[in-house]
Each structure stands twice: as C-alpha cells, then as structure tokens.
Amino acid sequence: MAFEGLADRLQQTMQKIRGKGKVSEADVKEMMREVRLALLEADVNFKVVKEFVKKVSERSVGQEVMKSLTPGQQVVKVVKEELTELMGGEQSQIATAKRPPTVIMMVGLQGAGKTTTTGKLANLLRKKYNRKPLLVAADIYRPAAIKQLETLGKQLNMPVFSLGDQVSPVEIARQAIEKAKEEHLDYVLIDTAGRLHIDETLMGELEEIKELSSPEEIFLVVDSMTGQDAVNVAQSFNDTLGITGVVLTKLDGDTRGGAALSIRSVTQKPIKFVGMGEKLDALEPFHPERMAQRILGMGDVLSLIEKAQANVDEEKAKELEKKFREASFTLDDFLDQLGQVKQMGPLDELIKMLPGANKMKGIDNLKVDEKQLSHIEAIIQSMTTKEKENPEIINAGRRKRIAKGSGTTVPEVNRLLKQFEEMKKMMKQMSTMGQKAKKRGGFG
Ligand code: GDP
C-alpha cells in the first residue's frame, strides 16, 4: 500500500494531539519531532522536511490554533493543509492546444513505466475526457518498445504511429503530428526513448523533438519506488528539458512515499498523475488534497466515488446510491456489488480509501479473490428470499443448512454475514460523507 509507514506514524501522532483541548508549545514541539522522524523515514528530502516542519510549527503555535475552541483538531487541519500544499495544492489539469492536436511528450528513464503510462494516459483521455489520442512509437532504441506500444494500441483499440526503428525520432514525431491533423485526432502522445541513465545524447534528442513538436506538455515518468533518486532524475530532466509535469508510477508498491512528497517542492513542477498498478486503467489524476487526507486517515471518498462512477453504469449507480442512502440493500445487491467492485480494483485498496478504514477491525480480512467470490455466490444462492432480505433471521440452524447447501462451511457463512454487515456500515458512512461534502461543495 502506498504511504503505509508514513500514514501509520502520522496518524498515531495526530491521534495524540487531536483530542487536546489545550495545545502548548511543548506539545507542538513534541509532535513536530515525531512528524519530522516520520517524514524522514518515509524518505522525504531533508530540506523539504525542514521547511515543512517549520511551517507547521509556526502555524501551530500561532493565533489560528491557540485561540480556537478545538486546538488539537486545528493542528491536524494545519498538517493536512501543509501536506496538501507540499504536494502542489490544487489539482493540476492537462493543457490543451488552441488548435488540435495537443502534443504530449512522454519522457523518462528506462523501466520507469513510460510506455505503459503512455497507454494508460491514452486510455484515460478517451474514457474520462472523450478524446481521440494517437500513440507514437518514437523509442527506436529499446528493441521491444515499438512492439510494446503496438500491443497496447491493439488492447485499447487505438491507432499507433510507427515508422520502425530506422527513421529518426524527430521525423517520426513530425509525421505523426501531420497524421493526427489529417485524421482529426486530438492528442498525440509521443513515447520517447529512455536510457538507463541520463546522458547528453538522449537529452539532445529530446530537445530536438521538443523544438519540432512544440508540445503542450512534457510529462516525466518516474518510478516512485526509487525514492529520492526519482526526485534527482526529475530535477535533472527539468533543468535540461523543462518538463511541465510528473507522472509517478508504481505508487501501488511504494510504501514510503518520499518521492511523492518531495518532487513538487524540489522541482516546482506538479505531479499530474499517479500509476497505481500494471493494468491499463490504473492511472489516476493526482489530487494533493485527497492524497493528504488519505495519508492522515481521513479517507478519500471522492476518489472512491469517481472510481465507482467509472465502472458502474448510470442506472445501476442511481439505484445503488439510493440503497446506500437508505442502507437498504440486500445480500443479492451485495453479490451484485462484489462483482462490480471487483472491476474497480483490489477491494482492500478501495476500502483503505474510506475514512478511518485503517483502524477498522478485520479490515485485512476483507480481501476478495475469485474463488472466494464463487463461494460467496454459492452461499447467497443457498439462502431463501426472506433470509437474503433479513439476514438477521439467519440463526445457527439456518447457517448450517446454508453451508451444506452451498458446499461451504459454517465459518464461511459467518464470515460472509459479518462482511456484509461491515460493508453496510461502511456504505452508510460513505453516504453521510458524500452528503456532507455536497453541502460544503467539497472536502476539507
Ligand atoms: P519503460 O521502459 O519506461 O517504457 O517502462 P515500461 O512501460 O515497460 O514499464 C516497466 C514495468 O513497470 C512494466 O512491467 C510495467 O508493467 C510496470 N509498471 C508501470 N507502471 C506501473 C505502476 O503504476 N504500477 C506497477 N505495479 N507497475 C507498473
């Protein structure tokens, strides 16, 4: 899980101060010592840590906190706001050209996830923004890169422009842009060559492509798991090429989060997207505030709702929303939901987006795999309609019968009923959060 260590430590620290009716300078000092350690352990750049701690300390002993009625909570708010600021404040949008196509250069070192991200971005542009992208294979040096992009294009059913590996990348870019104009495609995503290390030839070539294609965006793709190396790479690319944004990949595996927290502050360039897995739909726009909330255990309900919207059809979503609100869905709906939720990504990751989820007991047992799902299906199908609608009537005798009928065991039936209850509780929580947010016009 992304930010695991940092989230745990910060939440523990915040927990201590949150309930305090009075916050002294000594309290703040003590808290900041822990925050500092937590950030350093998460591999955040030390200068960034220093600056962050200074800002939070100043604000925490200032009027806004000391005079407030709930100083403990105010300190947590300050930490959240400064974390958000650290990661770039506002969410950063993709630029669009006045006259299409919008050209985006994808740059980065080999293995960072550049080619995969090019495919993911094309997918997102089509799915979320209804755009028509052209993928351009301009990495003529890595033997498999062109093929890889072509395969991605096939999977996505999207055009890929390639001239093999004997034509210069600059010429490939030129012709690709022409083609996009002719065919009224609105985005040109150029997958450029990567190297193992930054070298002058590579930078020279990228500068040539930049000059010729006047891209609206130059996205640097970096592997978040490389921590401060990712930050250094970002700085070098920015110094020579002038990037417009960063895509942080493999955040799904980055338990520390140092790169995500340092890049913006060091390079002054925003993180635009984060890669959360190998699949083509595992790219998310980066929202600093939501990420800060996630780190502090306040949940990320908005992202969760967006994920649901992207995967559930509208009619069903409306029906579901009503059921959420009324907390009136049955085990049949639950079954239906499991299928849909599964499409949204790993369930345990999703649940961790809920406020306070990490403190919920048994949360780690909520993993659902294919086999379990078929068991769940069998269990639910072995229930009577009455039981499905009122699971509270399922007593020991009924549990035994259901287990027998579904070829499972009583503990499995018990577990399912418990999970269902948990889920219902969470849905309820989610819907109250959603309504509050609607009223306020956002989370904060
Ligand atoms: P390139 O050399 O920069 O073009 O890198 P590739 O696109 O070939 O990606 C390198 C590896 O990283 C591949 O195995 C990808 O599946 C994997 N990868 C890319 N992005 C992510 C991500 O966000 N999460 C995970 N877990 N793996 C990723």
Largest sheet: 8 strands, mixed
- Count of DSSP-assigned helices: 20
| Distinct small-molecule ligands in the complex | guanosine-5'-diphosphate
Classify the fold: give the CATH topology of the largest domain.
Rossmann fold
Could you list the spans in which at least 5 consecutive residues all have pLDDT below 50? none
The CATH architecture classification of the largest domain is: 3-Layer(aba) Sandwich
The best one-word shape is globular
Q: Which structural category do the helix and sheet elements fall into?
A: alpha/beta
Annotated CATH homologous superfamily of the largest domain? P-loop containing nucleotide triphosphate hydrolases
The portion of residues assigned to helices is: 55-70%
Spatial gap, N to C terminus: 23 Å
What's the total number of strands? 8
**Share in β-strands:** 5-15%
* Rg result: 25 Å
Q: What is the string of SSEs from the N terminus onward?
A: HHHHHEHEHEHEHEHEHEEHHHHHHHHH
Mean pLDDT: 85
How many structural domains can be distinguished in the coordinates? 3
Instruction: Output the CATH class name of the largest domain.
Output: Alpha Beta
EC number: 3.6.5.4
Family: Belongs to the GTP-binding SRP family. SRP54 subfamily.
Protein name: Signal recognition particle protein
Enzyme class: hydrolase
